[in-house]
Amino acid sequence: MTPDGALDAAFAAQPRTGFLPRAVRDLAAADRPLAIGHGQTNSQPSTVRAKLALLDVRRGQRVLDVGAGSGWTTALLAELVGPSGWVLGVERVPALVELGARHVADAGVPWAQVRQARAGVLGSAGDAPFDRVLVSAASSHLPRVLVDQLAPGGVLVIPVAGVMTRVERGLGEDELTVTEHGRYRFVPLVTD
User: Fold this and answer.
1) What is the rounded distance in angstroms from the CA atom of residue 139 to the CA atom of residue 39?
2) 4-183 has which CATH code?
3) Less Cβ around it within 10 Å: N or C end of the chain?
4) Catalytic status, residue 124
5) How far is CA 47 from the centre of its chain?
6) Residue 158: which residues within 8 A CB-CB, separation 6 or more?
7) Cα angle, residue 86 at apex, residues 80 and 91 outer, rounded to 5°
8) Residue 158 parent element (H or E)
């Protein structure tokens, strides 16, 4: 688990307010999802914190953030990995790619970026392997393509059929430890 102190520091360094549309910024402290346009939301802070704790991010790691949206989770992950790490956020909605990329560029974490997700492609296999993969959209099943992008010892956190799921890859290709961590609601994972 990511230590509480590291999470506190990341949230303090990257306040949610700077990643929200002006119309909802006054609600940034509310522990609820907030609309960011295009049918997408900025997840509630307690959910983001729970996902990051499960992901167990460490300094110097390579992290993939699937469904980067406004860029908030990408920036939080960048704080956790520090300048010796690297974070790639991928997003499918072009307007949100532009927004998220701008937010991350303004966040002072040049070791992180947000890119357009390729249509029909989940993750970023060309940049793999990743030490950690975070998914901020709900899948009906565990996507093997994301598991395959994990380095040995890597961790994937993803909502699967409404349940927050943590997958830890062992040293062997098919050595997986899968645990479940409560029910959550997310927008659906789409790869179009």
Assistant:
1) 16
2) 3.40.50.150
3) C
4) no
5) 11
6) 133, 134, 135, 139, 142, 143, 146, 164, 165, 167
7) 95
8) strand 150-160
Q: Is 38 exposed, middle or buried (0-12, 13-18, 19+ CB in 10 A)?
A: middle
3 CB-near residues (< 8 Å, 6+ apart): none
* Full pLDDT tens readout for the chain, 192 residues: 777 899 999 999 999 999 999 999 999 999 999 989 888 888 999 999 999 999 999 999 999 999 999 999 999 999 999 999 999 999 999 999 999 999 999 999 999 999 999 888 899 999 999 999 999 988 888 999 999 999 999 999 999 988 999 999 998 767 888 899 988 777 777 754
Q: How many CB atoms lie within 10 A of CB 58?
A: 16
Q: Between helices 94-106 and 72-81, what is the axis angle to 10°? A: 40
Report CA-CA distances (Å) from 24 to 27, 33, 71, 87.
5, 11, 16, 26
The amino acid present at 137, given as its one-letter code, is A
Which of 43, 124, 136, 139 is catalytic? The answer is 43
Residue 156, number of CB atoms within 10 A of its CB? 27
Find out whether 80 and 48 touch, Cβ atoms under 8 Å.
no
Residue located via tokens 């901020």: 136
